[in-house]
Amino acid sequence: MGIQEHLWDFPCVHDLKVMGLSQHPIEDIVKEVISRHAPDYDPNSLSSKASSSGKYTSITVSVPFTHKEQVEAVFLEFHQREEIALTL
Q: What does the pLDDT average to over 69-79?
C-alpha cells in the first residue's frame, strides 16, 4: 500500500471518514487507531452519524499528518480491522 506523496503537502490536517457496522463500537475503534498513530489529534474533531437504516455508522475525524508513513499506517490498520467497512 502506498499513497501518492506528491498529492500531499506535509504537514497537513486531513479529514478521514470511516464507516462500519453499527453493532461494533466504531467510534472507540477510530479513537484507538488515530490516537496510536496521531496522538496529537483533537478528539473533539470527531463526529458520527448513523445511516438512515441504522445499520452503519460513519465517523469523520480531522487527523494531523506529518509524513506519508503515518498516513499509510492509519489506512493499513483500518483496512485490517474487520469492523471497518470503508475508509476515505
A: 94
- Cα(67)–Cα(10) distance, rounded to whole angstroms? 6
Q: Whats the size of the chain, residue-wise?
A: 88
Residues whose CB falls within 8 Å of the CB of residue 38, separated by 6 or more in sequence, listed in order? 63, 64, 65, 70, 74
* Confidence band for 21, pLDDT divided at 50, 70 and 90: very high
In the predicted model, is pLDDT for residue 1 greater than 70? Answer: no
Q: Rounded to whole angstroms, how far apart are CA atoms 30 and 14?
A: 14
- Kindly give the interhelix angle for 26-37 and 68-80, rounded to the nearest 10 degrees: 150
Q: Which helix (H) or strand (E) holds 60?
A: strand 56-65
Sheet holding 47-50, edge to edge: 47-50, 56-65, 12-21, 84-87
